[in-house]
Amino acid sequence: MPDLIGILFLVRGDADEDDIKHCFDPLGSFFQEVDCKDRTILQDVRGIHKDSRIYFSSRVLVLPFIEIRLAKQEDHDDLADVFNSQSETVTEAYGEYFIAELIAAQSDNNKALVAQVKDKAVGLMGLSKEVDVKLLHQCFELDSFDNLLKPEYMDAIRARRELIIEQKQREAENQRISELRRLKEETMKCNIIAQRIALQEYLIEREKDITDTIEEHLAKTNEDLAKEMSTEFVIEMIKEWLSGFTIQQPSEYFYQHPTDDNELQCNIQDELEFMISTLEIFGLPIGYMTGNGHFADWGKEKKDDKLSQARKRQLAMNKKKKGKQNKAFEQLKKKYAANKNDDKEEKPKHFDLEPIKKALKKFCLSNGDIRSQVRQIFKQESKVVRSVFIDEYEEASFKKCIDIHELSTKL
Predict the structure, then answer these.
(1) What span, in angstroms and rounded, lies between the C-alpha atoms of 315 and 292?
(2) Cα 374 to Cα 195, 204, 366, 396, distances in angstroms
């Protein structure tokens, strides 16, 4: 706009006069027709009708030249008319003579400027060095104007602001990662497999003491064991082993950080039940605490020894005559049958600690190093492992379950 001198408007000669009047009459007072010296020239101009007219609007007709000067008391009447034509709110708020007061209050820190057109004041601007920049920041968006600060100072502020934003973003990301890590840690504390590993580490530290206790009881006579080795006694003994172990349940952390992670689990077993169910994976008979699997080899060794001795005697007698052999063998059979009832001993009724001793040993041996080796074997023999889970239709099925001990025969 500062460099604009005027506007040229072309009215085509072939345009309809009614259309020209409708579009051009509202602006006609600002335009003057430019005289055409030679219309024959227009005949040779391509795209321009020979009867076309040109109108010109000078900048002065719309925006007259404005003179800026210091305000005087004499400008009050002209300025009052301007302000009252716009709104009476200012006059009502500051009084009828506020303009005169503003002009009169000029000093080195406060000035009033007037815009003058043809000797008439048409605008007023109040300038002051005493500016409440903080108030302006609170009321207006001044970022586009460098917040009324020096450009180099504002550039430094923007750079600092960007640095603070980046720091906050990094802190927020680190906080998010920390929360995710904490959430995973709290979740894994309650995971069944994680708690079995924790139980294993706990028992490995106390394996020697536990084994010594079991060996001490196994060294006692059957009469002493029958007196003290009851189910209640064994339960209290195992609880004493587990006195320092606690099953982890979801903490109050999840009240503020809910999650749908399927690895988050609640364990309804107590420490004793959890240990027994874990040892069942390592060969402890199911129902062991109720007597199942106790003295499983009772009488088997004695019977095998007697049959072995009988076979040896029979082979030795094969060198003799057939008649003597048959007669001696018959006598041996009668003697064995006669002594069978005398040698038969009643199965002990006290609690058998041998099965839990064996299962505990297997459990403690399956430590982190062994699990790592097993994972390597599974990885190397992945095809064989997958083949185990093939159903009757020769398709892989997640429904097929097998005992983990069966894998050892296939690998």
Answers:
(1) 40
(2) 20, 19, 10, 22
pLDDT reported for residue 267: 82
> Which strands sit side by side in the sheet containing 110-117, from one edge to the other?
67-70, 110-117, 120-128
Q: Which two tokens stand for residue 392?
A: 């009757």
Q: Would you state the structure tokens that stand for residue 169, as one six-digit string?
A: 């973003």
Provide the token pair at 161. 């602001």
Return the DSSP state at 32: E
pLDDT band at 200 (very low <50, low <70, confident <90, very high): very high
Give the number of residues written for the chain. Answer: 411
Helix, strand, coil content of the chain in percent (nearest 5): 60, 10, 30
**What does the alpha-carbon distance between residue 105 and residue 263 come to, in Å, rounded to a whole number?**
78
Whether this model's pTM surpasses 0.90? no
Distances from the Cα of 175 to the Cα of 24, 184, 260, angstroms: 67, 14, 20
Contact 211, 353 (CB under 8 A): no
**% of the chain residues with pLDDT over 90:** 21
Burial of 170 (0-12, 13-18, 19+ CB in 10 A): exposed
Q: What are 279-302's pLDDT values in tens digits?
A: 998 889 999 998 888 888 776 655
**Hey, how many other C-beta atoms are within 10 angstroms of the C-beta on 55?**
17
Cβ 230 vs Cβ 282: under 8 Å: no
For helices 322-343 and 300-317, the axis angle rounded to 10 degrees is 160
Tell the residue number behind the tokens 């003994």, with chain if given: 237
Average pLDDT over residues 97-105: 86
